[in-house]
Every structure is written in C-alpha cells, then in structure tokens.
Amino acid sequence: MATQKRDLRTGRSYWMSRPLPPVPVAPLAADVATDVLVVGAGISGALTAEALAADGHKVVIVDRRGPVRGSTPASTALVEFEIDVPLVKLAGQIGLPAAERAWRRSRLAVDSLAARTRALGIACDLVRRDNLYLAGDMLDADRRAAECAARRAAGIETRLLSRRELKEGFGIAREAALLAYDDIALDPRRLTAGYLRAAVEQGAHIHAPVDVTDIAVARSGITASTRDGPAIRCKHLILATGYEIAHMVPKRGHQVASTYVIATKPQPRKLWPGECFIWEASETYLYVRTTPDGRIICGGEDEDFADDAARDELIPKKVAAIRRKLGKLLPGIDTTPDYAWAGAFGVSDTGLPSIGEIPGKKNCWAVLGFGGNGITYSRIAADIIRAALAGKADPDAGLYAFRRSRADR
After folding, report:
1. Contact (Cβ atoms closer than 8 angstroms) between residue 91 and residue 150
2. Considering the entire predicted model, what is its pTM?
3. Which one, of 240, 210, 202, 187, lies nearest residue 20 by Cα?
4. What is the largest CA-CA distance in the chain?
5. How far, in Å, CA of 235 to CA of 220, rounded?
6. Residue 2, CB half-sphere, CA atoms under 13 Å: how many?
7. Distances from the Cα of 84 to the Cαs of 142, 225, 241, 294, in angstroms?
8. Is 176 exposed, middle or buried (0-12, 13-18, 19+ CB in 10 A)?
9. Residue 356 to residue 368: CA distance in whole angstroms
10. Are 337 and 263 in contact (CB under 8 A)?
C-alpha cells in the first residue's frame, strides 16, 4: 500500500513555536496483532483512535513520520461547522434534505468535539468563536438572504448584517455579512497530542516511524507489511493518512491543493470586538482568526496544485498578497508576519469529506476529511467508524460514503 509521498508543509507555523506535551511512542520491533490498525497520527487518526480505544477495541497507531508531524501543524484551526459550499449551493448539488443534514451534522460535530475535549481535560486553548462570513462573489444580495433563511430553516441560527451593522459592530467596511455562532478556535498540535495521549491511556499503542508498504485483505483478516520488516495483523484498518492518499483509496471528487498562511506580531489592543472568525463568500477566500497571545492568523491565496517546489517558490509573493488583503480588511493593524508557512490543502467538489469503507476492501476504512472543515470532519469520521465497528449504522454515513466505480466492481 503505497501512498502519495508529499512535502506537506514549508516554513514554521505559529503552532510549532509552542511547547507540546510528549506523546508515548515506541519502535515497531516485532510482528503485532490488534483489533484496529490506524495509519496516520494526525488529527483524523488521533480522534478515531481515541474513540475506538474508549469503546474497548485494541488499537495500534502507526505513522511514517511520527505523531503530529504531517499536515496538522500547518492547520489554522478555524474549527467551523460552516461548510465551504453554502447551504443553498450544496442543496443544488445533492438535494435540500441531504444538504441540511450535512450542515446539521457539522454543527453537531463541533459541539461534540468541544464536549469530548473538555471531558478528557485536553489543554489546547479551546475557545468558542462566532463566525463572520463576508459578502463575496459566491453570494450576491439575493443569495445572501436565501442562505440566511435556509440555515435558519435547518435550525442553524444566523443573522444577516447590513453594511452599517458590519461597520459599527466590527469596524469592517464590506457590503454585508452573515453572522453565525459558536465555532471553535484551538491549537491543533495540542489537540492532536491530547487525543493521542488519551488513546494511549485507554490502551492504544503508537509506533513510529513506521512506513506501511502493502495491505493484504483476506477473509481471515488484514495484514499490513512495513518497510522495515515487522507486520501488523488486524481485524479493521483505518487509513487516516491525510493528503498523502493511499493508492487503494478512491480519489474521485477530491484533489490536493496548496494554501498560504501568516501569523502577525502580537497586537491584542488592535483586535476586533469578539475576535470572531472572518472569512469570505468567494471562490478564493481569505480566512482570519486570533491567537491566545493576540496575534492574527490569516491565510488564503490557495492554488490548485500540490507540487511542493512550485508551492514554495510562491511563498514570498503569497505572503505579500495576504498582507495587502489583511491590511485592507482591517485597517490599522500591523500585518508584519512573525511566522509564514505554506501547506497542502484538500478540496472536494461538494465541500464534503469522504468517510467510509473502501469499495471492494472489506473492513478497510478511509478518511478524506478535505475542505476547510478538516478537524470538524475528523470528528464526524471518528463517530461514523466507531458506530460501524460497534455494529451500528450511523444515520448520516451515506452522506460521506465512497461511491463504487466500475473499476471497484
């Protein structure tokens, strides 16, 4: 089972400057047998492993780099329920009932993540933040009103703000915005490390660096071969490899792109009221949040390619563009970056992830939590897989399931 090897990030993200609690890791010295093998020790793998270990499954986690060393440190960690694709647009793609279910499930996942993180006592600077969705080319005046009405009809409280309300309330000079409530800001490295530690405390084992090279699926079980020799036998396999997609996983409707981010110098006295998330209803949007020490994290300028050399060559140009846009959006702030980085970023046609059993590979599961809701989708993946391994059917699993192609039949 080879994966697409990628240089997932370049530069040093703000999160890398912050101390991280140690995560217990051991080399894989001999063959092992387990109930569940989770490949990937980033946020998707951590949430899934913790959920399964809490249910009493014997869990082994492996990663070819080590815990929290892939794309997770590049995340800006705007943990939103708002899907990249507006509800009114998603309804045109998959139908209104399914679109409403997808939005409600993301709302539930954000609340579930907050509650579980609190229950486990994970210190990751988790705070609730409101969300300001600025007018852009994806939503004209009529569609903004329709989007607001559609969300409220689905039970998701949203306000439509006028230019005046936006200026008076937030100091932002834009035509209009939608205001939603109770998303999450957090430190993604500390969150992931906390869930990995919780999984270990519940009996899981983490081995790294371990590079899985082949998967053999048989009626008697699944065997994962590794580059250094030891094999892992399991009943269930979970591929949580992020943007390094395993070749056995269907990729239709998904692609890996590149995104760019800066974190400014601390300036707590210049921040906007409430420090809400800010992003735009545009195809290529800017997204903004704050940090506990008063910095502004701002990202965007996405490119639809994943070549790391081409991505990295654009970093100076992209940083300059982000600074210009940020300065225009929030006049009076200092846009000087203390940190700047670039990273892989996944997108899908609908803004939804793919989560489920791989077609033609019984008991082999994969998580493609692509889009701007990666952490939210990781929570949904953990819940769907947990239910399946408990012999239950998650009511929303069909929203995210892989579609069987002719090649899979």
Report:
1. yes
2. 0.93
3. 187
4. 66
5. 8
6. 3
7. 19, 37, 22, 26
8. buried
9. 9
10. yes
CA distance 213 to 234: 15
Class of residue 294 by CB neighbours under 10 A (exposed 0-12, middle 13-18, buried 19+): middle
The single-letter code of the amino acid at 324 is R
Q: What does the alpha-carbon distance between residue 49 and residue 54 come to, in Å, rounded to a whole number?
A: 8
pLDDT one-digit tens code per residue, 132-151: 999 887 787 788 899 999 99
Q: Which two tokens stand for residue 375?
A: 């952490």
Give me the amino acid identity at 237: L
Record the tokens describing residue 24, joined without a space. Answer: 């217990």
Q: Are 106 and 376 in contact (CB under 8 A)?
A: yes
CA 111/CA 121 separation, integer angstroms: 15
The pLDDT of residue 7: 47
Can you tell me the distance from the alpha carbon of 312 to that of 318, in angstroms, rounded to the nearest whole number? 10
Distance CA 173, CA 179 (A): 15
User: Using CA atoms, how far apart are residues 288 and 191, in angstroms rounded to an integer?
Assistant: 20
% pLDDT > 70, the chain = 95
d(Cα 250, Cα 255) in Å, to the nearest integer? 11
Pick from 103, 22, 122: which is nearest to 373 by CA?
103
* Spatial separation of the C-alpha atoms in residues 312 and 111, rounded to whole Å: 36
User: Residues 195, 86: contact at Cβ < 8 Å?
Assistant: no
Which class for 196: exposed (0-12), middle (13-18), buried (19 or more C-beta within 10 A)?
Answer: buried
Per residue in 226-252, pLDDT tens? 998 899 999 999 999 877 777 888 877
3-class DSSP state of 50: helix
List of residues 6+ apart from 95 with CB closer than 8 A:
none
Alpha helix positions (H), 177-332: 188-201, 308-313, 315-329
CA–CA distance, 122 with 320 (Å, rounded to integer)? 36
pLDDT at position 94, please? 95
For residue 146, give the amino acid letter.
A
